[in-house]
Design a protein that fits this description.
alpha+beta; three-stranded antiparallel β-sheet; two-stranded antiparallel ribbon; 4 helices; 7 strands
Length: 231
């Protein structure tokens, strides 16, 4: 792995948060976040199916690629949790739709027990002061795109993940180490990575996934090294 620093500057991106954050998986990926910002800026249609995602032209973002081209030179989100809370969302049985399909044959539907009973979906919300990413890229272009991003994480539509302010800062040479910005000093992955990245710790957690956006797409998944979302 060799950083293409000619393609950008070593930078640190910081999101100062104003509300709770709901985050799962391997954290929030800066490359995917910037692609979503480009799509919003250019009024591109959303990718809602696997076929659309596979056939869509690539989106250029101001982050350098690794020399192998399999991942971007940026970390996943890193943050320290000050408080945790468990939230539960009630998933109700689609009663009105069941009556429409069943018609006059439906006499009663028991929603208090059995297969039609509603259930609670738990999710963890964390309180953090800020999220941090490190990357190699164009700081001015990144700051411009991030100005379009006002919320992060899941459940944004109900008020979670409000960003108070973005900061994009240059990183000094003495702040970096071999493997920066995708590996920690001890070789742990800071983002989803292929297993053959030089310097990767053999004890790194593994899972099946992707090393480039869209991360939700099942096509192209492989065994990868997975980062921890919390520091």
């Amino acid at each position: 792995m060799v950083s293409r620093e000619s393609a950008g500057w070593p930078i640190r991106v910081v999101a100062e948060m104003s509300s709770r954050l709901v985050v799962t998986g391997s954290g929030i990926q800066l490359d995917a976040l910037l692609m979503a910002a480009v799509a919003r800026r250019d009024d591109l249609p959303p990718l809602t199916t696997a076929r659309q995602a596979i056939e869509a032209p690539p989106i250029d973002i101001p982050i350098a690629l690794s020399d192998c081209g399999r991942y971007y030179l940026c970390s996943s989100s890193m943050f320290a949790v000050s408080e945790r809370e468990t939230r539960r969302t009630l998933r109700r049985f689609p009663l009105a739709e069941a009556i429409d399909f069943g018609g006059s044959s439906i006499r009663t539907i028991k929603t208090g027990s059995g297969p039609c009973k509603g259930f609670m979906i738990p999710s963890e919300a964390v309180h953090v002061r800020e999220l941090t990413w490190v990357a190699v890229g164009d700081p001015e272009a990144i700051a411009s795109l991030l100005s379009l991003v006002t919320r992060l994480g899941r459940r944004r539509a109900v008020g979670e993940g409000l960003v108070r302010r973005w900061r994009v800062e240059r990183v000094r040479d003495e702040e970096r180490w071999p493997g920066w910005p995708v590996l920690s000093p001890d070789g742990a992955p800071l983002r989803p990575l292929p297993l053959d990245v030089p310097g990767l710790s053999p004890d790194a957690p593994r899972r099946f996934g992707r090393t480039r956006p869209p991360y939700w797409l099942l096509a192209g998944e492989e065994e990868i090294a997975a980062p921890s979302v919390v520091t």
